[in-house]
Amino acid sequence: LTFETALKLRGGPSLVLAHSLGNNVFRYFLEWLKLEIPPKQYIKWLDEHIHAYFAVGSPFLGATQSVKATLSGETSGLPVSEGTARLMFNSFGSSLWMMPFSKYCRADNKYWKHFSGGTRKDHHIHQCDEQEFRSNYSGWPTNLINIEIPSIRGLEAYPSVSEVAHNNFSSIECGLPTQLSFSAREISDGTFFKAIEDYDPESKRLLHLLEKSYHGDPVLNPLTPWDRPPIKNIFCIYGIDSKTEVGYYFAPSGKPYPDNWIITDVIYEIEGSLFSRSGNLVEGNPGPTSGDETVPYHSLSWCKNWLGPKVNITRAPQNIKKKQTLFPT
């Protein structure tokens, strides 16, 4: 209605400027529009109503810092504790919208179920290219999460409280902590949250939210790479060359929820290399440069896959760097 009113009042199409999470909102709008108007009118409507789309600082493949915000909290300069920031971040329904995901895996198109008569269950499948399993880290520079969890012998890898209660607790031996690593695909498909659901009271709720509001969304599962929108003019704008977090090491803190995890190390991308927080070089698949301090280069630059025959690439050096936050305004 806003676009159509603007067209009537101004007599021409609009410019769309989306920043950070706003790009995810605009993508959802484009998919929702397919269900609102006849397919033959879709491209015509876009041509008439949108002259250009400016994607500014877009987390096209997600943002690594959302993982930290979910597990241990990200204050982003706010005068609150990390535990409070974690509670706040996880209370937002949009937080999982910025979770990293693999560029090699795509979800089924949800809107086809409206026409095919398929069941809801048929539309949860992620289809991954062979490259997802041949390459490391889902195409990202490194594993996004490395986490230590308690290990209990003789039971399944991640026993629930009820399962433990049914066993002779005195015969259970506690083993050393086990370190598990998770790629972007294992975060977005819920594998990670399932792995820690017996050690973190937040994980079951987040897994439910992930499956209901993202994997099961009737319009779009946004945790899958998106193709170039069918808009005539697109401008992709993002910052580079800043030290950006791309991976984390977590361990139990010994404190109660929401402070039950502590970050023991951080992996950064900078100048085409990967370094730990202590300054040690880390093996992995770094990109040619680094991101904008909040979103890794790998995610910001995904729009380069949209390049067609008519494209101009401009690099504008700047001295002023402004950090964007994960919280939508």
Automatic annotation (TrEMBL):
InterPro entries: AB_hydrolase_fold (IPR029058), LACT/PDAT_acylTrfase (IPR003386)
One of the Pfam families matching this protein, by short name: LCAT
BP term (GO), one: lipid metabolic process
SUPFAM superfamilies linked to this entry: alpha/beta-Hydrolases
GO molecular function, one term: O-acyltransferase activity
PANTHER family for this protein: LECITHIN-CHOLESTEROL ACYLTRANSFERASE-RELATED
Annotated protein name in UniProt: Phospholipid--sterol O-acyltransferase
Organism in which the protein naturally occurs: Citrus sinensis (Sweet orange)
